Amino acid sequence: MKKELGTFLLLVVLCIAVSVLNPRFLAPANLQNMARLIGAYGIFSIGLGMVIITGGIDLSVGSVFALLGVLLSIMLTEWGLPSLLAVLAVIGVATALGAFHGLLITKARIQPFIVTLCGLLFYRGLARFIANDETKGFGSAEGFETLHNLATGSLFGIPTPFVLLVIISVVMWVVLHRSVYGRYLFAVGRNETAARYSGINSKKVVASAYIILGILAGIAGIVFAFYTNSISPSSHGNFFELYGIAAAVLGGCSLRGGEGSILGILIGTALLQVLQNLVNLLGIPSSLNFAVMGAVILVGVIADQLLQRRSARVG
Amino acid sequence: MRLNRFVALACVGLLLTVACAKNGGTKKLAFVTNNAADFWTIARKGCEKADAELADIAVEFRIPADGTAAEQKRIVDDLLAKGIDGIAISPVDPDNQTQMINDIARQTLVFTQDSDALNSNRTCYIGTDNVAAGRQAAALIKEALPQGGKIMIFVGKLDARNAQERLQGIRESLQGSNIQIIDVRTDDTDRVRAKSNVADTLVLYPDVAGLVGLWGYNGPAILNAVRDAGKTGQVKIVCFDEEDETLAGVKDGAIYGTVVQQPYEFGYQSMKMMAAALAGDQSQIPPSKQKFVDTLVIKRAEVDDFIQKINQLRGR
User: Fold this and answer.
1) Distance, in angstroms, between B243 CA and closest chain A CA?
2) Do B281 and B249 meet the contact criterion of CB atoms below 8 Å apart?
3) Residue A135 is nearest to which of B38, B203, B229, comparing CB atoms?
4) Where are the beta strands (DSSP E) in chain A?
5) How far is residue A38's CA from residue A168's CA, in Å, rounded to a whole number?
6) Exposed end of chain B (fewer CB within 10 Å): N or C?
7) What is the pLDDT of residues A115-147, one digit of tens each?
8) Within an 8 Å CB–CB cutoff, is residue A229 touching chain B?
9) Which residues, in sequence order, are bridge partners of residue B126?
10) Which whole-number Å values give the CA distances from A110 to A7, A50, A56, A100, B146, in the listed order?
11) Where are the alpha helices (DSSP H) in B108-160?
């Protein structure tokens, strides 16, 4: 809990500051907009968190989104597949890609960075090739309105992506923090050799983390595709993996592996989205967007370090 | 035995290569884009048309994947090494690529298209007058908002020249009118962000009367955010280019109008003019060395014809 506390305090302070400076921050429409984005980004950030906890990394997520978006659009609008089938197929492809990464990393012993960097390049190219470099979209969603409304709509006023995130978080919380498998994930991440010697099938555990990420990336990919409603294969999802990695690390995951929590990842995701939102709400020039993000996060992390050192000395 | 088979294969390969290569009189021309987008699919059709019409040229279409100056340089170097006779390029960063364009000009014929490098030794420029396009958009805004009001402008990057020129045209035309520009929001071509920028604007300025998107994808992004906020029709939308969703929006009245370029003409005319110039005919090149292709205004009345035309060009 200690590790997330700093980020959480930063998030609270930011929210209070922004709502004082511009009360519209708390307007229902703004909260809905933010919840929708936190939902979409949070879903795959949790997956990335799992992988990071095992000491791995995945750089291909953004390109996978482009590929999935293009496939989803083709399946729904050109082939006229039933919604459910298309959704399952997209999640299936994403899961297969995750399994493929896991296999290369554990069986072929290639570094996760290299495997997924190649993925980043390969899937982007594949998406562009399949789409023939044309923007793919869903138009007015004729024939799959239900799926479209489900992905972009709300449940009792709460955007569906956020509802999905809550469900996924609860499930993943149990998996990570209350199951034997979760202990294995941490153990493998902290010291793979030690984990192996104590009888854990570390290869299986590592590969499974990439499969989980695949499933979650599949779900998030569908949400993002319907959020933009059109997928330009050359730019859709660019750099999204970095948002996920940043959210996980801000939330207390260590890039060395073995540390992290679901709650932390959620706080990290929310922080990143609030930062994007406040640039617009406070009328800060868009050009400063990334600068504000970087500066606030850095200040927060420094403050956190100082506080922890102090409490360590006191304790 | 194995060697024989290898020799046979090599012979077949050689024959194929010879058969495929066009005869010596054919001029090799290249069209280099600045990134991968639908826009260029249409330009490509124009190039192909010119290629089909003129027997003595062969056109090569090159798309830099990541849209950087570095990649354009690599492509250009490869083309020059192959002995290309003419290049029509859309420089990503004209001011800093002037040197590269001059280097090409020393070795072969070079045109700029889509975006111009004014101070370079290019033979001619073919493309849109973006300031004029901005003025057309401003006229649409005035038409859509006779009572005046506040508008917000959205674009991918403000440091791109076409964004600056379009904005300049809009600002010039709106000066002194009852329409006030609140600000310009950028999204670094991230569509998710493009949409959330609009959503945030609708929250922050409930009285915003008009939304303007300067780049192609901004139109759909605005449209979707306005729809989600349930403000279709209340907020007037004016945008650029011809993404499918933009055109659908114009058709159902959610978008007031869009200003479109004619990339087909960029491809077709640049190839034709280069072929003529290589044959010694300079008469098609204007004295100003700039040939502007008009931008068109598409409103509800024109949209059906335009959709039909554009689908034909895209081969749908």
Assistant:
1) 8
2) no
3) B38
4) 136-137, 154-155, 158-159, 230-231
5) 13
6) N
7) 999 999 999 999 999 998 888 888 778 888 889
8) yes
9) B113, B291
10) 33, 19, 11, 12, 64
11) 130-144
